[in-house]
Every structure is written in C-alpha cells, then in structure tokens.
Amino acid sequence: MISSFIRDSGVTQGSILERREAMAAGSIGAVAPPGVTTESATLGGRPAEWLVPTGADGAPVARDAAVLYFHGGGYCMGSLDSHRDLVGRIALASGVPVVSLDYRMAPEHPFPAAIDDALAAYTELLEMGIGADRLGVAGDSAGGGLTVATLLSIRDTGLPIPAAAVCLSPWVDLTQTSPSCRDESLSDPVLRTADLDLLAAAYLASTEPTNPLASPLFADDFTGMPPTRIEAGEDEPLLDDAASLAGRIGAAGAVVDLVIWPEMVHVFQVFPGESVPEAAESVTGIGDFLSTHLLMDRRAKSGMN
User: Could you tell me the residue range of the domain that residue 132 belongs to?
Assistant: First the structure.
C-alpha cells in the first residue's frame, strides 16, 4: 500500500520544484479529522493553522496549552495542507490544541530561515500567555530536526524550555554518513539517501552540514532538554539519526522515550490508521505522552473529582 502510493504520488521523483508540486497536488482538499476545528492564523510573522480538538461538551478545548508543530519535507517541501490530517490526529489523541507553522523553505529561503521562524513562533506563543509548562514542540523528518534545533535555540537564548518534545523520524545529521543512511538493504520506499543529499544541498546552501543548528546531532551540549519522545521505522535511512539523538539526550540527563517500529518506513504516521494500524497506535502513544506532560494539572483535577 505504502510503496504504490509513494510511487504514484511523484514526491520522490524529479527536481525539488517538481516534488513540491506533486506533494501540493496530493494535498488539495485535505481536511482535519472529525472532532477537530481549524483556524487560520499568523504566528511569528508566518502563516499558521490551529487545529483544536473538541471537548466532551462539543466545544473546542481551551488554548491554555498548545503544541507547536513543524511539518516534514526536507526543508524544501510540505505545507499546512500536507500535514493537516496527521496534526489533527495528534490534537485529537492528546486533547491539546496544535498549531502548525508554515515556516520558510529552501531553496528560496535556506538555513537558518526555518529556525528563525520556529523560534519567533515559540516566542509569540509565550507572549500569548501560554506557559512553557503547557507548551510542547513536535515535528516529523526535517520538522523533527527543526524541533531539536529550536529546542537548542530556545535554551541558548534564555527562553523557558517547553514541557515536552516529539520527534518523528528526525533528520538531525545532514551529512548522511550514518550506517543506516548507507545501508542499501533497507527497503524504505518513502526516503532514500540520494533524496536527503539533494534536499540537504538546497537547505544548507553555503552552510557546513555539521553546523549544530542544521544538524543538531553535532551539538556539543544537550543539557536542559525537555522530556522527549522519538519514533522511527526500522526500515528507514534515518533510523540511526533517531537512535543517536535519543542517546545524546538521555546521556545529558533528560527523560527520553525511543520507539522503533518493526518493518515500518519513514514517517509512517502520515498514513491512515485504517490502512496502517501502526500509525494509529503510534499517534495514540504520542497523544498520551503529550497530555501527560502538558495537561498534568488538568489530569490531577479530573482524578480528584
């Protein structure tokens, strides 16, 4: 199912522009899942979209907690449309409003434009009055790498650290030199090392791939990271990125959950749970993780009643 869908979509063929157009064409008419309301917004000077789950009373839940989400696509593709369903399912599973950011992309806007946009968006969420203890940051693929780079930037600029982070198949080493990136036996139809090389060149422009905000795995210091959930598929080139990132964060003293899904591919969570049951199971786990760390006071009150 996944292989045929990817083959027919055209997102792994041609130039970056052609791949971007193919992804956009496949996202036309994408809607949020039932039980989630959407609202266009601006955040950090960039277009954004709130996906807010409805509560037991049928009304949207309060925005006193939020998850800032960065879509994948190699820093060159992807959009609010392409990830609306996945982000909406995460909102439903967690019971937390999620705001998806349309950060600037390469090659038109290479590094560090995406990080500048991400940090500005996080800063504005704080200025809106949402406490860091009720904020999460999440993303998939390049958006997973952007999540880690944003966390490092938040820490280094002295802003309060969010309560949780989620990285799905994070791309945190743009050198593509890990064993899994060079393992030709891996059977991932979604992502190939050649694709990563193409996208990295566009994003980096003249920046060295070992710059720690482009490739966070090269950061010297991971202290101060929040509780982090990292997931990856067993058959994808970024398997080692995920495992190495988990090791670095854990060694720095943070709580980290690493989940490797057998026989799964790159960001399999984007596929419908009806077709890929593991996607539904993963999103449920992500939702539980986020609600545990962002809604602890609400859960405590519920337990008292």
Answer: 2-304
